[in-house]
Design goal:
elongated, five-stranded antiparallel β-sheet
Length: 307
């Protein structure tokens, strides 16, 4: 049996070896895997391979950014993600990018919590893959060529660096919201163009108070104002008209009802006065009001979604 003087140095050397941190994940390296004199130590062959892949891909700065983090360890599940290539999954969660031959999807990533995660995820997905990580929602928007790389391989790449991927529920809802926003912007654009032209016609009619405009020109300007206001009222303002009708059907009063009543009253009275050839018309006020109300609704929508 060796004397105590020989046992203590060996024990201290063993404890020191156990205290060595893995160069990739930071976990203690078992003494049997410590390499004497090596600048990098690894707790397993997986960490060795992953670190080599990260460095070879030009992502070595990830470890520098991680030093300022909270010390969370990467969670690697080792899943194959074969279900991501299933046709049923593709039909439910993926969509084609028109005119490019690419596919797109949104995935929820576990473990996303700092800007270094954004930097790493967007660079670790591989060539031919575009990734945009939303840090606040922990979701990554992917575009890739399915002929070059399957989605399961992209998901495994993310998993190996500590970000297990999951299909993001509600992707269809987000598409509907985007479509709703685009439709509202189209209405705003049309309403703004109409409002500008109706205001110019109104300026010409107002100038009649200081000049002697021929009756036929006055009638022409009134009819053109009516013609321009019709699409503004029936299409651009349909948002408020439908809301007002729905308010009456459900017997639940909200702001769309008084707006719809005001727009309808002004439009109908102005149309009657145009037909009769006398009285005030309010088409400039109606067109501008519809434009401003739609613009306000879009701003409200953006702020609500941002919140």
């Amino acid at each position: 049996m060796p004397p105590e003087a020989d046992i203590l140095p060996a024990l201290r050397q063993s404890q020191a070896a156990v205290a060595v941190a893995c160069s990739h994940c930071g976990l203690p390296v078992p003494k049997g895997l410590c390499e004497e004199g090596a600048t990098e130590q690894f707790c397993c062959s997986g960490c060795r391979v992953v670190r080599a892949a990260i460095v070879a891909g030009g992502l070595g700065r990830y470890y520098e950014l991680r030093e300022a983090d909270t010390g969370r360890q990467a969670r690697v599940t080792g899943k194959s993600y074969a279900e991501f290539d299933d046709p049923a999954f593709v039909a439910a969660y993926c969509r084609a990018v028109p005119g490019t031959g690419l596919c797109a999807t949104d995935l929820y990533l576990e473990g996303v919590h700092c800007p270094s995660c954004v930097w790493l995820v967007e660079r670790a997905v591989g060539e031919g893959v575009t990734a945009r990580l939303d840090l606040g929602r922990a979701s990554v928007a992917l575009q890739w060529d399915p002929a070059r790389v399957p989605l399961s391989e992209i998901a495994r790449s993310l998993d190996t660096i500590g970000y297990p991927a999951h299909p993001l529920r509600g992707g269809g809802v987000r598409e509907l919201r985007r479509g709703e926003e685009r439709a509202l912007l189209a209405r705003i654009g049309v309403a703004g163009a109409i409002a500008i032209n109706v205001m110019l016609l109104a300026l010409a009619l107002y100038s009649d108070a200081f000049s002697d405009m021929d009756a036929e020109f006055r009638a022409l300007f009134r009819w053109v104002s009516l013609a321009l206001t019709i699409p503004s009222y029936f299409w651009c303002g349909a948002v408020f008209l439908r809301g007002g009708l729905a308010s009456l059907r459900s017997r639940t009063l909200h702001m769309d009802l008084p707006i719809a009543i005001g727009l309808t009253a002004g439009f109908v009275w102005g149309a009657l006065n145009t037909v009769r050839g006398r009285g005030e018309i309010f088409f400039d006020s109606i067109a501008v009001l519809i434009f401003l109300l739609l613009l306000g609704r879009w701003i409200q929508m953006r702020q609500r979604r941002a919140a």
